Amino acid sequence: MKYLLCLLLFLFSAGSNVRAQDSSFVKKTYKRFYNRYLQKDFSPKSPDSAKGLKAGLKRVYNRMYKKYVYVDSTQIDRDSSKGFSSNPIAVPIVGYSQEQKFGIGLALIYSFYRNRFDVKALRTSLYVNAGFFHLYEIRYRFKPLIWGNNRDFRFQQTLDFQDYPTNFYGIGNHTLAANLTRVRYFQLNANGEIQKRISHKLYLGLNAGFTYIHISPITRKGYFDSLSTIASRTGGRLFNIGPTLNFDTRDFQNYADKGDYVRSTVLFSPSFLNESLGSLISYTLDARHYLHFDNFQVIGLNLVASGFFDKYVPFSFLSQLGGNQIMRGYYSGRFRDKNMIAAQAEYRYRFIPRVAAAVFAGTGEVYGYEPFAFKNLKPNFGGGLRYIFDLPSRSTFRVDYAIGEKPHGERRLKGLYISINEAF
Q1: Residue 177: CB partners within 8 Å, gap ≥ 6?
Q2: Is 175 helix (H, G, I), strand (E, B) or coil?
Q3: Of 385, 377, 332, which Cα lies nearest the Cα of 360?
Q4: Class of domain 89-420 (CATH, top level)
Q5: Residue 352 has what pLDDT?
Q6: Can you tell me the mean pLDDT for 286-309?
Q7: Is pLDDT at 56 greater than 60 in this prediction?
Q8: Is the distance from CB of 399 to CB of 418 less than 8 angstroms?
Q9: Phi and psi for 85 in degrees, rounded to 5?
Q10: Residues whose CB falls within 8 Å of the CB of residue 356, separated by 6 or more in sequence, listed in order
Q11: What pLDDT does 10 receive?
């Protein structure tokens, strides 16, 4: 059993790409298991075979350590030929959520240094995924992130295409399950952003995008049809442009151990570009802070807000509460309004280099047509497991189970989520 544990350790923690932040953690883990299971002399029934097995495990340990654990600190992140391959990674997607049910797909992740001799450079990354969910949903995303020399500028683009059925419950923070209506969303989103560094870790730039949404009811003569007087009930197109700000001191973009991240945008949508939607001003805020205790434990804190400054907001662009990132446990779109605000905290414990456990809790609400009130804040809590399948980028395979509130006369809200990368 002890030898089996050693071999399992190699299977979970071996990988051809280990960064400096992971190196000390992996070394400590290996040393602890080596001293406990390989250094001691055991006295089994067959001493000769045990000695041979022990010697073989030591050779495997030394070979794996030199190949996968040891990192030359002078070459870390600088030369892809020394343990940091630029080959693309193809990852099968097996996802599950309340909204999508089960789905399959493929993600392609390609990261590299535009100038590997630039000591200040960060990895440029290209991310593409496509999937089919519950037989009725198609999703495609292309999302490159390009860094300039010396980190002086960054360019990010997102191209999203989604065609999926979903549930509609109404508008506000107190919608009822009895009003459930099935509708189909067709959404196309194209967005580009370029930012210039104005100080250490602080970037200011311009964001421009286009969103097209078409909504059609699946359930005939349902609650959705009763809202025929609401503007843009069946969708519309929206052009927007405005300033964006990024402050980022994280050590990793995904599964960060320490640092801060703040992203804020204010986008203007002129009326002459938006059919009958009129002029709109929207905002977003995403603030994160990571408390680092040791190589095993981290606590993440997250505040998210989004919405519009306008009195009347098109229905198809209302902010929604829930999903697999913020306020897990709530069906995305169960509660929607002009504005949304939510906060969450997550404790993560990485007990071996590639596997971690997490617990989380949060609160939030939507408001606008209904005024904001602390008494209307909704709770959520839950836990899950993480598998880090790519150590250089800390890309993770995530499984979460979350529980929300229990509306009067209804079942408690809850959900299971299987997805790629962290919620925040």
Answers
A1: 169, 407, 410
A2: coil
A3: 385
A4: mainly beta
A5: 87
A6: 94
A7: yes
A8: yes
A9: -70, 145
A10: 255, 348, 349, 350, 385, 386, 388
A11: 46
Note the pLDDT tens digit of each residue in 153-209.
Answer: 888 888 888 888 888 888 899 999 888 888 888 888 899 999 999 988 899 999 999
Dist. CA 187–CA 205, nearest whole Å: 26
Q: Two tokens at 348? A: 């993560």
Burial class (CB in 10 A: 0-12, 13-18, 19+), 203: buried
User: And the tokens for 76?
Assistant: 């870390």
Report d(CA 142, CA 192) in Å as an integer.
12
- Residue written as tokens 């190589």? 295
The tokens 């009003």 sit on which residue? Answer: 179
Closest CA to 183 of 234, 241, 111, 125: 234
DSSP, res 35: I
Higher per-residue confidence, 66 vs 126: 126
Q: Is 149 left (phi over 0), alpha (psi -120 to 50) or beta?
A: beta
**Structure tokens of 49?**
């075979």
By CB atoms closer than 10 A (0-12, 13-18, 19+), residue 157 is middle
Distance CA 8, CA 376 (A): 47
pLDDT at 412: 93
Of 169, 216, 167, 209, the residue nearest 189 (C-alpha): 209
Distance of CA 89 to the CA centre of its chain: 18
Residue type at position 207: N
Q: 265: closest CA among 224, 307, 296, 298?
A: 307
Q: How far apart are CA 321 and CA 329, in angstroms?
A: 10
